[in-house]
Every structure is written in C-alpha cells, then in structure tokens.
C-alpha cells in the first residue's frame, strides 16, 4: 500500500506556544529557587566545619542530607504528580521547601548537626519534588523537538539562583568571624528563605495552568491508538528503554562530580589560593556565573549542534580541568576549578532531556527515576572528603571517573532504540 508522509518542517521548532508562555515563565522561575537551595548547602558545609567543629569528611554529610532526599523523594513525587497533576506537585514541593527552611531555626537553636541535617533533608524533599515535576512539565510545554532548548534555558535560569546562593550565603553566613556555636546568621537567613518560598507557593496556587496534550497530562488515560507518534515503545516497560536506563546512570555520576566539586570549592580557595571564607564564596559564585553563561550558550548552540555532541565535548573538557586542578598550580589550577562549572553547565539538563526522549506514557515516572540519580551527589562528597582530609587538590582526581561515564553516554549510550519496521511484501 502506498503511503504519504508530511514534508519535514523547515527550521528549528518553536520554543513554545503562546498559550503556555505564562506557565513557562512560572515553572522556569522554580529552577531559580532550587538553585539557591542547593548551593546554599555548600556554604553551610564550610560554616559547620568552623562553628560546629566537624571534619571535612563529616561536613560532607550536609550534601548527603540534601541529595539523599532526591533519592528518597523521587518516586513519591512522581506518584503524587501522576495522581494529582503538575500544579499540585509544585505546591507540594514549595510547601516542603518552606517547611524545611523554617525547621532550620529550632535546629540551629539546639546547636545540633543532626537536627540541622534533618531540616535540610525536609527542605531538599521539596527541591526534589519541584525537580521531578518541572522537567516533564517543561517537556510538555511545546514541540517535543524543542524540549532540549526549553530545559537548558530553564537550567540557565537555575544558574541565576545557583549564583545567588553563594553570594547570599557568603554575605550573611561566612562574612566576618563567628564564635563556636554561633548560628544566628543561619536562623535569620533561612527564616527569610521560608517566607519567600511560602509566598511564591501562595501565588502559584492562583495561576491557571492551561491543559496539556494527552502525552504529558498526568492522570489522562491514553489508548495505544491515541499515543503520540514519538512513543516508539508503547508496548515496552520503562526499563526496557535502554537510553533511559543509561541516562539514570549518567545522571548519578554527573551529579556525583558536581556535588564533590562544589562541596570543597571553598576549602580549595582558602588552602591553596589564600582566600578568606567569604572571598572564596564569592569566587564560587563567579564560577556559577560561568555555569549560567554556559547554559545560555548551550541553549543557543543546540540549534546547530546535536545535544549529545555538545555533552561529549564538555565531558572531555572537564576531564582536562580536573587534571589541572589536582596539580594545585596556583592561579592556573584555580581558574581550572572555576571553569569546571562552565563546562559542567549543560550536563544535567541535557542528560535529563536525552533520557526522556520517546518515552510517551512513561515520561512522568521516568522523570522521577532520573531525579533519583541525583543521589550521586549525596554519596560522592563523602568519598572526596576522605581524600580531602589529606589533600583537597588530589580529591579532584576522583570526578574524572564520573566524566568518563558521562562521555560514554553522550557518545553512544544515549541512542533511542527504534521500533522495528513491520515487513510488508511488495
């Protein structure tokens, strides 16, 4: 039988549709909020070393509490989103974020490192929920072929929050000297964060979210005949999609490298470059400006260069940067440490978007599993901390392993298995 096909669309697909613009703006702003929440943990890492007298290895438990929440909350967030929809998922995430911020006050009053980590865990459960909801939400706000650009753009906005975290923390938490047990600045700062996040949650409650198409709408039953053409494996279970499985693995190692790099950035600046704590925090913020610039640049370049090729290139670049950082060659190594974030920029969102390709009805659940891969950032800083207690510089050899895994994913393992064509005699 002769079939006809539509001609391919000319040019790059539209970034989004007009009806989704307001929702896109609001959802993108959520990326900035969790940028602040995540990078603030790296400020606390150094602060707790000095005020609560914990070792570098033990202070890395801050990252364990934050990113461990991503592993614990990933699936529950996905189930909640699938049952109640994207908007209520966002409200749950913002509520947990605000609650955790307010819990930092009694935890600081108790001067308990354990209680502080519990409060950060609750806060990070909110971050994990927001992340699990926002990625498939963005994926559905326009043409599937432009989802890489939307997600990378949103992560560029996330970079604004990531830059703001060290600036805010450096000014309010690390500036000046603090007596042992003085956590006043932590209490004031997290009270303000809780109030801001709670207010944004209240505002989002009144936002009218337009209906999405069936492929992206949680709770919508979709028959096999109605599935989108991009759902190449509707008859396959989620874990039979090998590119998705490898995306989870790549995200684990990618966030492991990120978590370790960020956790000991300030230590590197103070020990090898002679910076004060607050000045090192400002340089950390500068490195995150590089990450933000890299994401905007990556969003633009993906109109011309395949996302997986860009991902492979930046993975190789960061292997080189880690080798230079580990030599502690003064200014040269410190610049390489700053550049790690520039090349790191597109890794997380690009792995995410490549992992969600052509999953159809599995997309919401897949998002939760990729979020769970962030547990790498919970485990790896502890390992780097054990090395950093002897040499912070040599600890930066360890992320090289992670970037090799990311490169392999970008070079080969990202590929979607095409559905076999049925034989048709002529």
Automatic annotation (TrEMBL):
Keywords: Cell membrane, Membrane, Transmembrane, Transmembrane helix
An example Gene Ontology CC term for this record: plasma membrane
Superkingdom in the source lineage: Bacteria
Major facilitator superfamily (MFS) profile domain ranges (all copies): 21-418
Keyword Lipoprotein recorded: no
InterPro entries given in the database record: MFS, MFS_dom, MFS_trans_sf, MFS_TsgA-like
GO molecular function: transmembrane transporter activity
Membrane-related topology note: Multi-pass membrane protein
Entry's localization field: Cell inner membrane
Pfam families: MFS_1
Segments passing through the bilayer: 20-40, 60-80, 89-108, 114-133, 153-173, 188-207, 244-268, 280-298, 310-329, 335-354, 366-384, 396-414
Acyltransferase keyword on record: no
PANTHER family, alphabetized: L-FUCOSE-PROTON SYMPORTER (PTHR43702), PROTEIN TSGA (PTHR43702:SF3)
Protein name: Sugar MFS transporter
Annotated source species: Hymenobacter setariae
